[in-house]
Design brief:
Number of domains: 4
Bound molecules: adenosine-5'-triphosphate, magnesium ion
CATH topology of the largest domain: Rossmann fold
Number of strands: 27
Shape: elongated
Number of helices: 12
Distance between the termini: 49 Å
CATH superfamily of the largest domain: HUPs
Largest sheet: 7 strands, mixed
CATH architecture of the largest domain: 3-Layer(aba) Sandwich
CATH class of the largest domain: Alpha Beta
Structural class: alpha/beta
Amino acid sequence: MSSAPLLPTVSNFIRTIIDNDLAAGLHKNIITRFPPEPNGYLHVGHAKSICLNFGLAQDYQGKCNLRFDDTNPEKESEEYALSIQEDVRWLGFQWEGNVHWASDYFDDLYRFAVELIDKELAYVDDLTSEEMREYRGTLTLPGKNSPYRDRSVAENLDLFARMKAGEFADGARVLRAKIDMASPNINLRDPAIYRIRRAHHIRTGDKWCIYPMYDYTHCISDALEGITHSICTLEFEDHRPLYDWVLDNLSIACHPRQYEFSRLELHYTITSKRKLLQLVNNKLVSGWDDPRMPTIQGMRRRGYTPAGIREFSKRIGVSKSGNSVDMAVMEGAIREDLEAIAPRVVAVINPLKVTITNYEGALTREADFHPNHPEFGRRMVAFGPELFIEADDFSELPPAGWKRLTLGGEVRLRHSYVMRCDEAIKDVDGHVIELRCSIDHATLGKNPEGRKVKGVIHFLSCAHALPAEIRLYDRLFTVAEPDADREVDFCSYLNPDSFTIVWGWVEAAVQDSTPETAYQFERLGYFCTDRRDHQPGLNLVFNRTVTLKDSWTKS
Ligand code: ATP
Ligand code: MG
């Protein structure tokens, strides 16, 4: 059902349940769903849920629906709904048939509410929300019945119809399920199932002024779609008795089962749409797709790959115990994918100019774009009388064991000559601003005679290099769990050094790359051309996706 390649299967408790259900003949095929609310952009936690739900459908040759839980009109928008569809597809998944919307079921949901009233299992309550809170009780104290709880069926039907007809003010009345005000589970203390809210809805417009509550809507939507396994995060565990109560009491043949797993928390970032929205609204990031954001759009713009994110979801697993994961797990998965697919090129991001004093015309060599992928092709490695090298590949007073360039020392220029540094030119403050070097003309593709040169550094020919804007990203927060302490505003932990722009140089081979092209800049990391700002041939803009674990010359 999906274009994503199959990942090797790792078992988890949900798969065990599915295996047992299939073996027992409970279902022939499984149907899962991913049910986002279109009230923000998806984040890495949602990516996990997407990979889980769509991944299960894929592995078991079942189906997975995409259903928008659009019951909160004030917070929802078409922009969010479109971005969510784009994100699911980008991750490599395709939902079954059309997109579903909870609002597709508003008529059914209304009809089922009438059924509950008819069965004396729902009533219209006139208590104010404050009174309702008082009557609800606490974790240790039972609630008490509302004085309106025993209204007749006829009166409830009449009032509910008039709620729908718009006779009452917003919040003046609610429809509540009649369950048990003394239940130890507060979710069962006569939860509201419909509220009055005059809000324009992105799909139903002004047709409704009453909207069903999430818990009531979700289980019925699942049942109407024939979902077999309704998988959600652990905070819904205590809502499961309500999920079951609603379905047990309605004339719907299908009764999906809800299973809960723990939410993903990723260190040094946050996984809450509300808090991410706060970062966007307060302009603490450049937008939902800021490459530092843990949103799918942000990760995409930064250069994370769908296969890398899917691999990450596989590695972190699915369970009921805490799922607080270090960023290194994500970075490892991304790096592994990029290692295999990104052509390797040269960029210099902190340039130091080198003049070759014995330059006698250009001899050049060809180099592969990837050592293991000859099919990626080759390009000429340009050489010239002036070069750029990384400033930190030169040291005047090198530490012990230094293998890179120093005064009087030699290095191999990657894919090119052996070069000796003869002189360092300094500015008035004593900073090295240029090196004067000479090359050994006999060393192009050959070892030097009579000596060993250990270090290898990368370089670019100034005449051939192209200027590029290079955006370096670091962790968005300075602490692993920025929202762990309720007393402290998570924004106070923002990392002021999480974004730096440098102007560097890249080799001409990348000139025509389209946006979202991944490269390894040798020794520097994985980079990708920016989705928004990169213009092939005109304005080269690269985002650092992730650094390299090891550079090929360590010193
Ligand atoms: P947030 O708390 O960030 O607003 P949410 O749970 O309200 O997220 P929904 O749009 O309701 O967002 O989520 C859609 C699906 O994604 C739900 O099934 C939800 O359980 C799942 N999900 C959301 N956050 C995470 C997470 N951190 N880890 C795993 N699954 C998640
Ligand atoms: Mg939610």
